[in-house]
């Protein structure tokens, strides 16, 4: 397996894990199963760490362009919003309606923004 295929497969697998566990958690009801909830959060965190690490590695090789900074910043902002709304949704109290709705949409935007950022960084070569 080439490095590019490995990276795409690993990234796709992590996003797939986040989405599958997210769907399962939303149907499981509260309190969420601890193992699934923990893996869901850690997989998402792993993707964010990978993105930041890739930006740092790319920056060391050559300065990032404005477009690359925007891509990484947008993806990071999507992750932060996903984590914040996920925290609100996961509490024992009912989540505000806006937070629940945003948490239903933001994972897809995070996937698109992150995929774009990884492509802009040349990380999937």
Describe this structure in words.
- With 125 residues, this protein is mainly α.
- It has one domain.
- It is built from 4 helices and no strands.
- It has helices at 3-28, 34-61, 66-90, 97-120.
- Helix 1 (3-28) packs antiparallel against helix 2 and helix 2 (34-61) runs antiparallel to helix 3 (66-90).
- The mean pLDDT is 94.
How many E-type strands?
A: 0
Q: What would you call the structural class?
A: mainly alpha
Taking the sheet with the most strands, its summary is: none
Strand content: under 5%
- Please provide the ordered H/E string of secondary-structure elements: HHHH
Radius of gyration: 15 Å
Please report the distance between the alpha carbons of the first and last residues.
Answer: 13 Å
Average pLDDT over all residues: 94
Shape: globular
Detail the poorly predicted runs. Answer: none
Counting H and I runs of at least 4 residues, what is the number of helices? Answer: 4
Count of the domains: 1
Query: Percent helix among the residues?
Result: over 70%
In short:
This protein is mainly alpha-helical.
Set down the secondary structure blueprint:
Layout: H1 3-28, H2 34-61, H3 66-90, H4 97-120
Helix pairs in contact: 1-2, 2-3, 3-4
Fill in the keyword field for this structure.
125 residues, 82% helix, 4 helices
